Structure formats: structure tokens, C-alpha cells
Known about the structure:
The structure holds 2 protein chains of 2 kinds.
Chain A: H1 5-21, H2 25-43, H3 50-66, H4 73-80, H5 82-87, H6 93-122, H7 130-151, H8 159-175, H9 188-195, H10 198-209, H11 216-245
Chain B: E1 4-13, E2 16-26, E3 31-35, H1 42-49, E4 57-62, E5 65-66, H2 71-76, E6 78-81, H3 93-103, H4 108-121, H5 137-148, E7 155-159, H6 167-182, E8 186-191, H7 194-200, E9 203-208, E10 211-216, H8 218-226, E11 230-235, H9 242-246, E12 253-257, E13 260-264, H10 268-282, E14 286-292, H11 296-307
Parallel strand pairs in B: 3-8, 3-9, 6-7, 7-8
Antiparallel strand pairs in B: 1-2, 1-4, 4-5, 9-10, 11-13, 11-14, 12-13
Helix pairs in contact in B: 3-4, 3-5
Bound molecules: adenosine-5'-triphosphate and magnesium ion (MG).
Amino acid sequence: MYYPSGLRKSIAIARKDLRVYYGKGPVVIFGILLPFFFFFSFLIGRDMPPLSLISGLGGMAIWFTATSISPVIAPMETRTRTLERLVSMPISVTEMLMGDILASMTMGAVLSAIPISIIAVILNLNPVNFFPLALGIVVASFCFSTIGVLMSALPTDTPSDVIMLALLIKFPVVFVSGVFIPAGNLPGWGKLISRFSPLTYFVKLVRVSFGGTGQPWMNLGILTLFAVFFLLFAVFVHKRTLPKRL
Amino acid sequence: MSAIVSKKLVKEFDGLRAVNEVSFRVDEGEIFGFLGPNGAGKTTTTRMITGVIKPNSGTATIEGIDVVQNPTAAKEKIGIAPEEANAYLDLTARGNMNLAGEIYGVPSGQLRSKVNDLLDTFGLLDRADTKVKGFSKGMKQRLILAMALINDPGILFLDEPTAGLDVESQRLIKDRIKELNEEGKTIFLTTHDIAEADRLCDRVAVINRGRIAAIDSPERLKTTIQSTQSVLVSFSSMNFDPEDLRVLEGVEELEKEGDKWRLYGPEPGAIIEEVVSFVREEGLKILSLNTSGPSLEETFTHLTKNQS
Ligand SMILES: Nc1ncnc2c1ncn2[C@@H]1O[C@H](COP(=O)(O)OP(=O)(O)OP(=O)(O)O)[C@@H](O)[C@H]1O
Ligand SMILES: [Mg+2]
């Protein structure tokens, strides 16, 4: 499993990911800029209440940024054969994936904290539950990065394969997670599906953190459970598909 | 204890046996050559021993540590320069070295000086902070070798370290290999260059089509190779007893190739003289005559034929 001595290895991987992958044009545009334009074009001509706006934008931002690079690292490294280099060194699959998640989590947390703060200032909203919100941004970013890493278990060396798969999953999830329409206003079946989306709980958490009604810690707890589940699942699947990449 | 032990390693890809029960031992301090033509299974064997891929069956140990059971511990003992130069192009030389150092657990306090030393020995110090993207093939290969040495390993796996490099770079790398060996490192050197193996290696394993054909010192291997020198001759008529050819002086082996005969022996010149007097006695004529030296391909075919 994961030992503390592995942390240094994971951090080394994360630093490498941040240097190598977060400068790549197309990935940044599709992963980070597109969702913002998407969200704002939805906003035009609509009168959204401030709480829906901040939670919707926050959810959109963290979901797309945390899943922007995480799915493509593994296929890119397969293609450039740097994966072989990594695998030949003394590092476990868990340590390697933790590094990728760490990098993606850092970007996800920063790139969602910024727009949330900006909107909060513009709309003059006060975070009544600051700690759960701050923790929630970190945990949700970890959780969604892990989902991205899970998608990259597809044993391919073509990043666009995984990008397609990721888009097929990412957009529907947005619609059932209360980003555009609060989860409570969804039809019955929508409500049911929304419970299985971890993004729902982050959107709720943001809402609650800025004064909406609900329990912040419970939403955070559920997010944490999702994070653990997806982490174990991602490690399990990657261990099986890694040999197919080499 | 042997530095490397491979026991009946087998690897199949889609039903095709790329490596077939490969067994050998490498002693500590040895330069062990792993020689074979393209597609023989050299890289596949190396990847199994270094824990990159899992064998279908068989075992491999590094200083007694089983690679499949305990991959991380085994990998900490070795340095690897894989077949394809695959450092991160978007990182600097130093960035790549640091990444390797951190993964191998080089203490932070020593990392910087170690990286500088290695980059210096491989002539890359002045380019340490430029991205690898702009490096030439030879520079990339030297960086890969420097990365392989970051943990000061006792055993070094080099998969065709000089392939595709110019004479100058080749010499630099070969000199380094010799020096490293003199420092006491065991070196597992994969190559298809028989001259390179001859100059560097204490012992050589020849692999062909996934099987070990021979393991010996280069000198003894060469005697096998010499016997594969041959004379290819065609006569005006096939009207004679082939056994008469076989018993000519200096002929060790005879083979029919279409309308021609191939006569193997250590001294093709002597064989030609014998063939000429044979032709006179039998009243035949020589239509064509060629000699061929010990090509690697022939050596391998010869060796595998003797094996199975
Ligand atoms: N990942 C793989 N999938 C399918 N077949 C493979 C794979 N790797 C190797 N092979 C096959 O296994 C055989 C041995 O390949 P290997 O790369 O080990 O040869 P090699 O001796 O290193 O050759 P070269 O001198 O060209 O490097 C080849 O027939 C090759 O096509
Ligand atoms: Mg090879």
C-alpha cells in the first residue's frame, strides 16, 4: 500500500506533472477555459440567484479543472515512452497515481478557489462556513482528480481516446449535479441520479458555506467517502491495465 | 552470490513466444553481453529481469531478490538505460535527474552535488538547465545513462546504449562502461554489435528467436564463428558423390543450397585449393565460387541449429 516514504516519490511525480502537462495549450483550453465559457453562455439572459450562481460556477470550475489533465497523463506517458522509464524505477503504481492526483488536485483547488473568491467579492457573499468550504475544495479536487485518473486507466496511447471518454462522462454529470438547476428542482429520476454524483455534494457544500440551508460537514463527509472509493477503484484498475501499456 | 539470475524465463505476446525458457547467471563484477539479432528477445528479457514486465513463467533475481515478488527492492539495486531514450523532453536535464534521484530515494542533501557530478562526467553540465527537447540523440543517450547512475547502483542494465550514435559518442560511452566496470559494477549489456561485445564483455550470451544459443567468453564464441566461414560453389554437373566433397581436407560441414554446395571450414582459402584439385580429378568445371565470412546472422543460425 502507501507508505510515508512514498510521499517524496509522489511529490516528485506531481512536480513533474505540473511542469510537463500544465503548459500544453489544447489541454488547458479544453479543460479549463471551455467550462467557463460554457457556464457564462448559459448565464446570459438568465436571472440566477447569487447562491445558485456561486455554487454552480464553483462546481463547474472544480469539476472541469480537476479532470482536465488527470485523464491524459497516462496515455501521454505511454506514447512518449516515459512511462517505461518510470516503471523501471522503484515506484509503486499507488505512488505514481498519487503523484498524478496530487498535481491535478493542486490545480483544481487553485483554479476553483480563485473564481469562487472573485464571485463572492462581486456578489458580496460571506462564507459563513469557511473551514468546511476550504476543506471541501481540497477534498473535492482530490476526488475529481481521482475520477480523472480512473478514466486514464483505459490502456491506450492516444490521449484523444481518453478525452472523448472524459467528455462523455463530464458533461452529463454536470447536468445532474445541480450546477445549472439546483438538485432539489430536478425531476424525480434526476434527483435519484444526482445522489450518485459526487459533484452534487460539492455544489451543495458551496451553497451551504455561503449561507444556504443544509449541513456542511455531512456533505464534506460524503465527498470524502467518494474520494476514498474512487482512489481504491483507480489503483485497482490501473494495476490491471498498466501491463497493457508497456 | 550471482548478481543476476534468470531461470527459465518465458514471455508470450498474443500466443507468440518472444522469450523461451531463457536461463543464465551473471557474476558480480562481470560485463555480460546479451547478443542477438533484431527481434531475438533481448529487450523483452531485459524488461522481465528489471521488473518492467512480468514473465509468463520462470523467475529472475537481482542479488538474490526476486523481481516479481519484490520489484521495488530489486529495482533499488539496479540502474537501467532502456532501449529508447525516453527522458522528459519538457523538463531540463537537471529536472530529469532530480526526478530520478527523488524516486530512487537519494537523500536531498546529496542530490544536487550528485546530479552535478554525473552531468559533468557525461559532458552535459553546461546544458544542465536547458530542456531535453533541444538535445541531440547522443546527448539524450548520455542523459539516460547519467539517470541510470543516480542511485550508484551495483548492477547496470544497458539496452543498446550505443545504437545509432556516431563513432565519437560510441567511444565515450564504451569508455564509461569500462570505467564503471573497473569501479566494480556489474554490467548487463544488450547489443547486436558482435565487435562491441567482443571488446567489452567477459562473457556473452547469444539469443536467437527467444532461445539462448550459447553462453561463453567472446574468444571461445569466436571459434564457433570461425567454423561458419564458408565457400559456396556450383559445378558444371551434379554428377559426383557429395561425400567426396565432405571428406575434402579442411571441410567441416557440407550443405546443399539449390544447385550450389556450401562447404564450411575455418580456412576458406585451403578449401578453395581442395575444391580446385577435386574439380580437376573429376573432370568437372566450376561455374561460380564465393567465400563468405562469419556474418552474425550465420553465427546465430549455426548456433541455434546446433542447439535444437
Ligand atoms: N509489447 C509487445 N507486444 C507484442 N509483441 C512484442 C512486444 N514486445 C516485443 N514483442 C515481440 O517479441 C519479439 C522480441 O522482441 P524484442 O524487442 O525483445 O527483441 P530485441 O532482441 O530487443 O530486438 P532489437 O534488436 O530489434 O531491439 C519480437 O518478435 C517482437 O515483435
Ligand atoms: Mg531490443
